[in-house]
Every structure is written in C-alpha cells, then in structure tokens.
Design brief:
Blueprint lengths: L1 H6 L5 H32 L5 H50 L2 H5 L3 H43 L1 H48 L1 H6 L3 H53 L5 H42 L21 E8 L8 E8 L4 E5 L6 H6 L9 E6 L2 E2 L5 H5 L2 E5 L9 H6 L7 H10 L3 H6 L17 H15 L3 E5 L7 H15 L3 E5 L11 E6 L2 E6 L1 H7 L2 H5 L5
Parallel strand pairs: 3-8, 3-9, 6-7, 7-8
Antiparallel strand pairs: 1-2, 1-4, 4-5, 9-10
Helix pairs in contact: 2-3, 2-5, 2-9, 3-5, 5-6, 5-9, 6-8, 6-9, 8-9, 13-15, 15-16
The structure holds adenosine-5'-diphosphate and magnesium ion.
Magnesium ion binds next to helix 10.
C-alpha cells in the first residue's frame, strides 16, 4: 500500500528532493533561533556594545529572510508536488473509467464515481504533499530540539522528556477517534453526492410529480447526518486542541519553576533559561504537526484505497491477447447457442441461434422484457456471452479488437444521449475527424437541414444539457445524422422511434430507411407498421425465439406474430 503510494513520487524525484531539502533547512533554522537567543542574552548583552548587538541583529535578519524564502519554496513547490501526483492519479482514474464495462456502470452510482475522481484525489494530493515531509520534519525537530535542550541543561531536558509520554498518549487517543470519524464522514460525502446528482439529474421528474417535499426530506436527513458526523469530529478536535494547549502550558510552567530553581542555584544562565523555554516550544510543536498528519492521513489513505480499488477493477470486457484489428466487415452475423444473463441466477437469453445475412434487415418483435435489447447489446460486446459465440463474417467478435468492432456497429436508441455542446459537436461525435462538409451532408441526409437553417446560430446552436432544448424528433434526427457520419456496416435501431408521435415517426422512418440502405440492420420495434418490409421478422418472448420469417409468411401461418398483429399500429 505505502510502497504503491510512494511509487507516485518517482517522476517528481527532483521536485521532492528540492522541497525536502528546503523544508529540512528551514526546520534546522527554526532550531537555531532559541540558541541564538541564548547567545544573545548570555554573550552579547553583557558586552554592552550596541554596534555588536546591531550587527548580530542584522545577521539574524538575514537568516530570517532566508527562512522566509525557504518557506515560500516549501509551500509552493511542495504543493506543486502534491498537485502533480493528484493530476496523474486523476488522469489514470478517468482513463480507467473509460475501460470499464456496462456491467460496472450498472452497479455503481454516478455520484460515488464522481467523488472518486474529484474529492478523493484532492485529499490524496494533500497527503501526498504534507504527509511524508511533515512527518520527517516533525521527527527531526523533535529529536533536534531534545539534543539542544540536553546541551543547554541535561536535568531540565530530562524533566521535560519525562512528560512526553503523557502528551503522546493524549494525542494518540484523540487521533484514533478522529480517524474513525473521518472515515464515517467520507461515506456521508459519497451519499451526498449521489443524492444531489440524482436530484439535479432527475429534477424534471421531481417537479413533474411535485415531489419536491419528499426530496427535501430525504436530503434533510442526509444533511443532518452529515452535520452530526462532522460535529462529532469537531468535538473531538476541540477536546484535542484544548487538551494539547493545556498540556503545553503545564509543561512550560514546570520548566519555568525548575528552570528558575536552577538559575538561582547558578547551574543555568539566564540566556540558557530563555533559550530553553523557546526550545520547549519547538520540542512540542511537532506533536501538533503529527496531530495534523494524523488528521489528514486517514482521509488521504481512505481516498487512496478507493482510488486503487478503482484502478484494480479489471475491465471485464477488454481486448483478448492476440485480438486482431477487425477487417472491413461485410456484416454476416451469426449467433451460435448464445446464453446470457445479467446475473448468475437468471438467464435472459438461452441457446439462441440466429443467422443474419449481410445487407439484410432483420426485425425483432415481442413483449417488453423478452430480451430484444439484450440480444443486440451482445453484438458490440457491451456485455459478454456466458456461453456460445457470436461471429461476424465468420470471425468470433471476441477475437477482434473492441474499438475496431464497435467502430463498425452503429446504434440508435429510443432515448438519444446528447452532449451539452452544439449541434455540430453532437453530429461530429459520430466521427471526430469529420470535415465541415461531411457534417453538413450528414445533417442533410438526416433531414436536419431545415431545422438548422431556421436557427439563428445554425450548426452552432447549443442543444442544452443532454439535448433538452431539442424536441424528441429533432434529437432522433441528430442521432441519425451522427450515424450517417459514422457510416457503420451494421446498424441497430432499438425502438428508435417508439417515443415519437405517429406523424414524426413516419417522417423519421423515411430517414431511418435511407440510413439502413446497404447495411446489415437489426430493428427492434413495437409498432409493427415500421417493420413490415424487413427481410425477416424474428418473434421473441421470454422462452427465446418463437418463430421467424417474412411478414406475409408469418401472417399466413397464423402463429404468435399474427396475434401480435392484432395490436393497432
Ligand atoms: P426488451 O428489450 O425485449 O424489452 P431487455 O433486453 O431490455 O428486454 O431486458 C430483458 C431482461 O433483462 C429484462 O428482464 C430486464 O429486466 C433485464 N435487464 C435488462 N437490462 C438489464 C441490466 N442492465 N441489468 C440487469 N438486468 C437487466
Ligand atoms: Mg428494449
């Protein structure tokens, strides 16, 4: 764990060493000041020479300036080290998110995932900067101060040291409680994110149901529990801060009494006395530092654990070793004994056998939940078959590189996901290196040109988050334009027009038919009018494929399909 953490320092070795050396030097100067005061009082003052005293002060000023510079370096370059590590980790986790499969996203909440890439990594960055350095400096000043105290007066040093275990005990007791508390707080922040993410994302639903009060109550509960956890943390912090202040002062008092006694006995100079008192401060300061490390460390480590857990989540769908770049596919699709279930307990598809010739249009009909979408999701390997195989042009899809396979399959679904940018950007998502003329052409073929011409901003019109500023039909046309640009060999239309009114649907059917030209097309539809012309219709239900054939044949047979046909279009 720690070794893995430190491996992130490797690329920034130079920065780390620079920061570290400056911090060590600054720590040593801090240690030097009490000794300077001792010399000042014991040696310089008795000479009664103002010039000497001023000269010494000037020397001290120079050291102060140096230390100020060092501190600036430590704060800036040290944080740069932290942010560099944080940036690298953020890049890695975002990269990894791109590789994880649909199944992973089925089972994880967006809010938690966002927290991982943002909040978690911020905490890690803090620890990455402060943790090791602070700890080292703390230990260094602790030991250094003790040696100097011993040098000034051994008896007094021993008395002071005797109190250390007590202070350490108090500190560690609070530290452990603090750790537990921070971990609890962590979970609460994640819950929070999820709650807000879902609420804001689903605001249209919330308001449509007039369920704002319900949402407020749920949020109030999370908010209150967050407050309580945080208050607990502050209570512990208050106790620990005041206790450490108290013990600090008590120690000072003890040292003052014992020190005064020694001065009166002539065993300690007054400079030594003052210097020693200052050293006591330096001696106990690291305990505060260690305290703050104890506070940030668990946060960082909890974040780092979650970060590594994410990175260690093996993508369950990835290129096989030896996978080949898919050749330009013709689109002969074959399902062989395909069995698949989302969970181990229940198979959604059992022993599916299906052949689709290149260039054909195959329609799937059947009740909702029969597994039509699932069947099509297996083709681009959004999910992996449990047994059996799917081949395209005789090649197992698992033997092709994912990107080269998916690059040749296009999907238009019922709800189109648009990104928050412009119409142009959303069309260009189909092929990122498309030229302006290609985008215009794709928009024309999707019959979007009229709409675009009517908009003052044209292609540069912002579609709003997820495309809220467009109508259902317009969004669907945008998805079709995107698909013209992508120009896939295999096309999946999953209830692409189901959400539209009949008039709009009819218009869009036209574009879809043009899009399907010359491609192997899998159509899922519940309005039978839209699939009458398919080369073959496959009727599925929970048991699997019930019957298949062209429209006329199935109607004539008078089986399941003809009974479906009874539903009005
Ligand atoms: P259809 O498209 O025919 O309406 P689906 O393929 O969407 O049916 O769903 C088939 C079955 O699989 C349903 O019982 C559904 O509840 C289940 N299912 C669909 N998607 C998931 C998923 N991501 N995780 C778990 N179960 C799912
Ligand atoms: Mg479906």
């Amino acid at each position: 764990m720690l070794r893995r953490f430190f491996s992130y320092y490797r690329p920034w070795k130079g920065l780390f060493i620079l920061d570290f050396c400056c911090a060590v030097l600054s720590g040593m100067l801090e240690l030097g000041f009490p000794m300077a005061v001792k010399v000042f009082v014991d040696e310089l003052l008795p000479t009664h020479q103002w010039l000497l005293i001023l000269a010494a002060s000037a020397g001290l000023l120079a050291v102060y300036v140096l230390n100020t510079g060092l501190m600036a370096v430590v704060v800036y370059w040290g944080h740069m080290l932290g942010i560099n590590i944080e940036t690298e980790m953020r890049r890695k986790s975002f990269d990894h998110l791109q590789k994880l499969s649909f199944r992973f996203y089925d089972n994880h909440k967006t809010g938690h995932l966002i927290a991982r890439v943002t909040k978690d990594l911020e905490e890690i960055g803090e620890v990455a900067h402060h943790g090791p350095e602070d700890l080292f400096i703390a230990i260094m000043t602790f030991i250094g101060a003790f040696v100097l105290m011993f040098f000034v007066n051994a008896q007094l040093a021993l008395i002071t040291a005797a109190i250390v275990p007590l202070v350490a005990w108090v500190t560690s007791r609070y530290g452990a409680r603090m750790t537990r508390n921070w971990q609890a707080l962590y979970g609460r922040v994640g819950d929070f994110n999820v709650r807000i993410e879902e609420n804001v994302g689903g605001m249209r639903v919330v308001q449509a149901f007039a369920n704002e009060d319900h949402e407020r109550n749920l949020f109030a509960r999370d908010n209150a529990s967050y407050r309580k956890t945080k208050l607990d943390a502050y209570r512990i912090m208050a106790a620990s801060t005041s206790m450490s202040y108290m013990s600090m002062r008590l120690i000072q008092l003890v040292v003052m009494i014992a020190g005064s006694y020694l001065v009166l006995q002539g065993e300690l100079t007054s400079g030594g006395f003052v210097g020693f008192l200052l050293l006591v401060n330096v001696f106990f300061r690291p305990i505060d530092k260690i305290n703050s490390v104890i506070e940030t460390y668990p946060k960082g480590i909890a974040g780092f654990r979650r970060y590594t857990a994410l990175l260690d989540t093996e993508p369950d769908i990835a290129d096989r070793p030896g996978a080949i770049e898919a050749p330009a596919l013709k689109g002969d699709i074959s399902y062989r004994d395909v069995t698949f279930g989302y969970s181990g307990e229940r198979a959604v598809l059992k022993g599916i056998n299906l052949d689709i010739a290149a260039g054909q249009t195959i329609a799937f009909v059947g009740p909702s939940g029969a597994g039509k979408t699932t069947l099509c999701s297996l083709l681009p390997r959004f999910y992996e078959v449990d047994s059996g195989a799917i081949t395209i042009d005789g090649l197992d899809i698992r033997d092709m590189k994912l990107a080269s396979l998916r690059g040749q399959i296009g999907i238009v679904q019922q709800d189109v996901f648009l990104f928050g940018g412009t119409i142009r950007e959303n069309i260009a998502y189909g092929r990122l290196d498309a030229m302006e003329s290609d985008i215009v052409e794709a928009a024309r073929r999707a019959h979007l040109d009229e709409l675009i011409a009517s908009l003052p901003e044209g292609l540069d019109t912002i579609v709003g988050e997820r495309g809220v500023k467009l109508s259902g039909g317009q969004k669907q046309r945008l998805a079709i334009a995107r698909m013209f640009l992508k120009n896939p060999t295999i096309l999946i239309l999953d209830e692409a027009t189901s959400a539209l009114d009949t008039q709009t649907e009819r218009e869009i059917q036209q574009s879809l038919a043009e899009l399907a030209q010359g491609r192997t097309t899998l159509v899922i539809a519940h309005r039978l009018a839209t699939i009458r012309n398919a080369d073959r219709i496959v009727v599925v239900d929970e048991t699997g494929i019930v019957e298949q054939g062209p429209h006329d044949e199935l109607v004539a047979r008078g089986g399941a399909y003809s009974r479906l046909g009874a539903t009005p279009d």
